[in-house]
Q: What sequence folds into this?
């Protein structure tokens, strides 16, 4: 029963909330540099990157497949964005920014709760989270319409480079602190902040919609 | 032992080599798709204004600026003309023959004369008129065409100093004043003043003939010029330094490479500035881009610092030095303090390089270098990116291809 209520609440918030939309341009900075800064200035993106990074760093998965899956999904999202490829129906497309924004917050919440609780989750779930995270960040990084096509691609390129670099920091942090118990707590505390931030962003966006 | 080992045996996980190959192919493909990287060929350069005042009170001004940038309103807010929304208009003007551009410039003359101001200490404005416009032939279109606009006017009686105003919407500009006494055969240049805000210049005093400029003022100006030329404006030099850094962030190989690069570019910078060597931009620019591509790609395939790499870095340094000289020549050298200007500019370049290494070290290497995935997740993708960027610029800068 509790699960149903929780799920319903999340679903309701998800459908009702608005995106924290920060897709403006810093004039004079150039499209590439604007793209570089974009993930930092979009709250749901940065918290998702940190949450997924901590999650990947904490979980002891071998190899690089999961990491590159995230990057591949991100590139896919950016390419969809660049070519204006729509994978959703016209109706969904209309509300896409809101849906993506909420999806990112949910992903960051799930990832940070896994880190807080330190649950070892199956690889397939991790894979799904990373695919969804990468894809949605890519799709969420729509370049401003005012830019010409070449500039739009430059913007997306900047986003790709920035997300790639930003993703490495929480991974390193998660990996570095996971070995000793008290250090491991640091990661879990940080994840709890991320979870709290996600909820706050969600609440604010919900209020903005109202 | 004729080579220095910089990477000890990397642990071979059974998955690693397979993943590494796949990852390289995947990244290559992805980057090719996502690859309209900024070409930094057409950097937006500051306008250079030289005000000549002779003893009879005649004022002659030489304003060196890109007329294409003036007409399209592309100013210093953009690092590159291609960053501007009206880059296409710029490109079409840049492709014009000089006569055509002169015709396009005619209607703009009135606005230019209205907006620029030369005033004396009491605010009295000097009436300026355009006496001539010299537009070079189209030439190599991948670099900005710097035209010279000649203005003339008369010094208001009782003037002790002049202030120059060039609107920021026309771009950054640097100004200096020359006082000439033809009878005595002497003249005096003031320091360059780089104006990056929408303000008048500092008062340019008219009583300074034969007074030597302060040493520290020259040093400061040229160090700043050298530094800014690398960081943040010189994206191609930044990428080259990053490629050297990525090859190995360890002190010895990094030190050796950077030293080779520094010695080489210092040699050609000096030789180019004094006019002993001169290579056209349409050769140097694509070669600089190619050097970036090579340095990036070599990082992926080579793990040890060979003497051949050092030699190549040296050769590439020679090329980059010619590029630095172009920037320095654009700005002009202090006639009375030639060596000071040259050395100061070079120090500025070195400081710029050190800043990049400092940022890369503390932002990247110190955190990631010891991770087992450093090579596969940082070194290879970043080097690929640098390599592909260099390759793209090489093609972009080859004029005969466009």
A:
């Amino acid at each position: 029963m509790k699960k149903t209520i929780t799920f319903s609440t999340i679903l309701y918030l998800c459908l009702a909330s608005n995106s924290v939309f920060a897709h403006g341009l810093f004039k004079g900075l150039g499209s590439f540099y604007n793209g570089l800064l974009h993930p930092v200035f979009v709250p749901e993106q940065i918290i998702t990157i940190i949450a997924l990074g901590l999650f990947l760093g904490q979980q002891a998965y071998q190899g690089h497949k999961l990491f590159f899956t995230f990057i591949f999904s991100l590139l896919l999202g950016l390419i969809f964005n660049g070519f204006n490829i729509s994978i959703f129906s016209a109706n969904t497309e209309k509300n896409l920014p809101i849906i993506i924004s909420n999806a990112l917050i949910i992903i960051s919440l799930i990832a940070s709760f896994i880190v807080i609780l330190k649950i070892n989750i199956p690889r397939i779930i991790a894979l799904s989270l990373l695919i969804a995270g990468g894809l949605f960040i890519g799709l969420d990084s729509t370049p401003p319409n005012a830019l010409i096509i070449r500039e739009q691609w430059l913007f997306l390129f900047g986003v790709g480079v920035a997300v790639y670099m930003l993703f490495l920091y929480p991974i390193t942090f998660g990996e570095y602190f996971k070995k000793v118990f008290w250090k491991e707590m640091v990661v879990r505390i940080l994840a709890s902040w991320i979870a709290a931030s996600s909820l706050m962003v969600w609440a604010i966006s919900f209020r903005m919609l109202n | 032992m004729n080579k220095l080992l910089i990477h000890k045996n990397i642990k071979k996980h059974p998955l690693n080599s397979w993943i590494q190959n796949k990852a390289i192919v995947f990244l290559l493909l992805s980057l090719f798709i996502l690859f309209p990287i900024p070409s930094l060929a057409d950097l937006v350069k500051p306008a250079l204004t030289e005000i000549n005042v002779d003893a009879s009170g005649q004022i002659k001004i030489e304003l060196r600026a890109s007329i294409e940038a003036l007409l399209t309103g592309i100013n210093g807010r953009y690092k590159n003309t291609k960053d501007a929304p009206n880059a296409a208009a710029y490109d079409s003007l840049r492709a014009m023959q000089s006569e055509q551009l002169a015709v396009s410039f005619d209607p703009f003359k009135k606005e230019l004369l209205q907006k620029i101001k030369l005033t004396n200490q009491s605010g009295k404005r000097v009436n300026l008129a355009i006496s001539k416009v010299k537009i070079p032939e189209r030439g190599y279109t991948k670099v900005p065409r710097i035209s010279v606009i000649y203005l003339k006017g008369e010094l208001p009686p009782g003037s002790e100093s002049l202030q120059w105003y060039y609107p920021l919407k026309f771009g950054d500009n640097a100004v200096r004043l020359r006082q000439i006494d033809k009878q005595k055969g002497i003249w005096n240049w003031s320091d360059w003043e780089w104006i990056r805000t929408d303000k008048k210049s500092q008062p340019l005093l008219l009583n300074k003939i034969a007074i030597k400029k302060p040493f520290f003022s020259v040093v400061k100006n040229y160090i700043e010029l050298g530094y800014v030329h690398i960081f943040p404006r010189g994206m191609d030099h930044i990428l080259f330094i990053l490629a050297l850094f990525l090859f190995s962030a360890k002190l010895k190989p990094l030190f050796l490479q950077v030293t080779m690069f520094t010695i080489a570019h210092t040699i050609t910078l000096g030789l180019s500035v004094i006019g002993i060597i001169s290579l056209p931009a349409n050769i140097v620019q694509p070669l600089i881009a190619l050097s970036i591509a090579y340095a990036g790609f070599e990082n992926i395939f080579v793990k040890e610092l060979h003497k051949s790499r050092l030699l190549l870095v040296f050769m590439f340094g020679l090329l980059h030095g010619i590029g630095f000289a172009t920037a320095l020549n654009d700005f002009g050298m202090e006639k009375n303090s030639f060596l000071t200007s040259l050395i100061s500019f070079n120090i500025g370049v070195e400081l710029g390089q050190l800043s990049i290494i400092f940022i890369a070290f503390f932002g990247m290497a110190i955190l990631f270098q010891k991770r087992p995935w450093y090579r596969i997740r940082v070194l290879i993708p970043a080097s690929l990116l640098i390599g592909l960027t260099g390759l793209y610029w090489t093609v972009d800068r080859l004029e005969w291809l466009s």
